[in-house]
Structures are given as structure tokens and as C-alpha cells.
């Protein structure tokens, strides 16, 4: 646990399920004030709010589409108006869909780029503006993927968005380091989330994924949340501009694990 996170205001986009939900619960456990953003009401966000309140945590929710500039401004304003500040911004909202590149429509390309890359940029920009205006040495965390590094056929729009997030994170980290604003990136590998539930329910497909992970198991959302808590805390006070891969070693060329090659 990180005592310095107590009372901090943490805004997480796309926090109704999966990794976002796990981060919301983890920061509530750290006694931070948690702001949950969700795209559309389907009661999943209510379940997260209820769980955090039952823990005795402070939480609020706010609807908003991260691809819309006015919505992102509204999301940040809601955090500030509710809890009085913004100390940690986590740009977690993201989407993916599988399409062979020759069949990928411009509409599908734009949807993924707009959500994953543009949405993260807007979140970074609004958080940075607030932190600069209020002299807050805050922490911004972007959610990328191992596929900012590993090519992924049939997901060229997704991989491109995550590659963009990597250099966006590094550029912003360099630009705002003198102001004490840290900007970092998390690159999850294969994680057991609702978006992967169908794939992992097939034993053969699941084994194919596990074979790509040197540590030999699918990661849990809570393991990504732990990385986020560290990056948000003062324990990582000298860390900015990195991608923290939480991937069980997936980015380490697992085909060579047994000395092959």
C-alpha cells in the first residue's frame, strides 16, 4: 500500500469493467478519491460504485465519450467539482476489433484511433492544463499494450494506436518533466478481462496464448492495477516517460526461451 495516495483524486476512463474496474478498486483500497468514467450506462458502472462504497471508499461516476473533446472537458470538470482537485489521470478507455487489413474500413480505423489515441491525448491535455494551472505535480498514466512493440496482424489500427500512445507518452513526459508532471505508460500483455473472455473460454485458443507467455499464465486485471498504483505513488517519483510492461515476459521473444534460435 502507498500511504501518499490517501486523499488523492484519481480519474480513470473506461473504468466500468476489466482493467479499469480493477484500478478503480485498487485506488479505493489505497484510500484515494476515485472518479469512474464510463461510455454508456449499462449498470456495470453502478456495480463498481457500489463495491467501492461498501468498502467505505469515496467514489463518483461520470458518463463521457473520450473521443469527444467537450466530453473529456466535462469528465475532468466533474472530478474537480466533486473532489476539489485532480492528482492522477489514467487514460484507460480503449477498443479493438479484428479485421484483415485489406478489409479494414476507414470508419473502423477512425473509431479505434479516435478512442485509443485521440482519447488518450485529450485526457492528457486536459489533465496537464489543470495541473499547470494549479501547480500540481501530478501523475498521468496511459494504457497501451504489448502491441505497441509486437506487430499484430488483423489489428493494424489497434497496434498503430498503441504505438502512437508510446511516443505521445514519451513526448509529453519530456515536455512537462520540468513542471513535475510525470507521464508514464503501462503495456499489458494477455489479461483475463471481459474483452478476452470468449477467446479464453476455448481451451485450444487459450493454450495458444499461454504458450506466448514465458511465465506461463494469463495475467489478472489486479496485476495491472498494482502497476498503476506504483506509477501513481511517490515510490516512482523519479520515473517518467517509461512503458512498464506487465506481460509475463511476452515482449521477451518467448520462442527463444529454451535456447532455440
UniProtKB/TrEMBL annotation:
Catalysed reaction equations from the record: D-glucose + NADP(+) = D-glucono-1,5-lactone + NADPH + H(+); D-glucose + NAD(+) = D-glucono-1,5-lactone + NADH + H(+)
Chloroplast found in the keyword field: no
EC number(s) on file: 1.1.1.47
Statement: the UniProt record of this protein carries the keyword Phosphoprotein: no
GO molecular function: glucose 1-dehydrogenase [NAD(P)+] activity
Top-level taxonomic group: Bacteria
Pfam families per UniProt: adh_short_C2
UniProt KW keywords: Oxidoreductase
Quaternary state and interactors: Homotetramer.
PANTHER family xrefs: SHORT-CHAIN DEHYDROGENASE_REDUCTASE FAMILY PROTEIN, SHORT-CHAIN DEHYDROGENASES/REDUCTASES FAMILY MEMBER
Family of this protein: Belongs to the short-chain dehydrogenases/reductases (SDR) family.
The protein, known as: glucose 1-dehydrogenase [NAD(P)(+)]
Organism: Metabacillus arenae
The organism's taxonomic lineage, starting at the top: Bacteria, Bacillati, Bacillota, Bacilli, Bacillales
Amino acid at each position: 500500500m502507498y500511504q501518499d495516495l490517501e486523499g488523492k483524486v484519481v480519474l480513470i476512463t473506461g473504468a466500468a469493467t476489466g482493467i479499469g474496474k480493477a484500478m478503480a478498486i485498487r485506488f479505493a483500497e489505497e484510500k484515494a478519491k476515485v472518479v469512474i468514467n464510463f461510455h454508456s450506462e449499462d449498470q456495470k458502472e453502478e456495480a463498481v460504485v457500489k463495491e467501492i462504497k461498501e468498502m467505505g471508499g469515496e467514489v463518483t461516476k461520470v458518463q463521457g465519450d473520450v473521443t469527444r473533446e467537450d466530453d473529456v472537458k466535462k469528465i475532468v470538470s466533474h472530478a474537480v467539482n466533486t473532489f476539489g482537485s485532480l492528482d492522477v489521470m489514467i487514460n484507460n478507455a480503449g477498443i479493438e476489433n479484428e479485421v484483415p487489413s485489406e478489409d479494414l474500413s476507414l470508419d473502423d480505423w477512425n473509431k479505434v484511433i479516435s478512442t485509443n489515441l485521440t482519447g488518450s491525448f485529450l485526457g492528457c491535455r486536459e489533465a496537464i492544463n489543470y495541473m499547470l494551472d494549479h501547480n500540481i505535480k501530478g501523475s498521468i498514466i496511459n494504457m497501451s499494450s504489448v502491441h505497441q512493440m509486437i506487430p499484430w496482424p488483423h489489428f493494424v489500427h489497434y497496434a498503430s494506436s498503441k504505438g502512437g500512445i508510446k511516443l505521445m507518452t514519451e513526448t509529453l513526459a519530456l515536455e512537462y518533466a520540468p513542471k513535475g508532471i510525470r507521464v508514464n505508460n503501462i503495456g499489458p500483455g494477455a489479461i483475463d478481462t471481459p474483452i478476452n473472455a470468449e477467446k479464453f473460454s476455448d481451451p485450444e485458443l487459450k493454450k495458444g496464448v499461454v504458450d506466448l507467455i514465458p511465465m506461463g499464465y494469463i495475467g489478472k486485471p489486479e496485476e495491472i492495477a498494482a502497476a498503476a498504483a506504483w506509477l501513481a505513488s511517490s515510490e516512482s517519483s523519479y520515473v517518467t516517460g517509461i512503458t512498464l510492461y506487465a506481460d509475463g515476459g511476452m515482449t521477451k521473444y518467448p520462442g527463444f526461451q529454451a535456447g532455440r534460435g
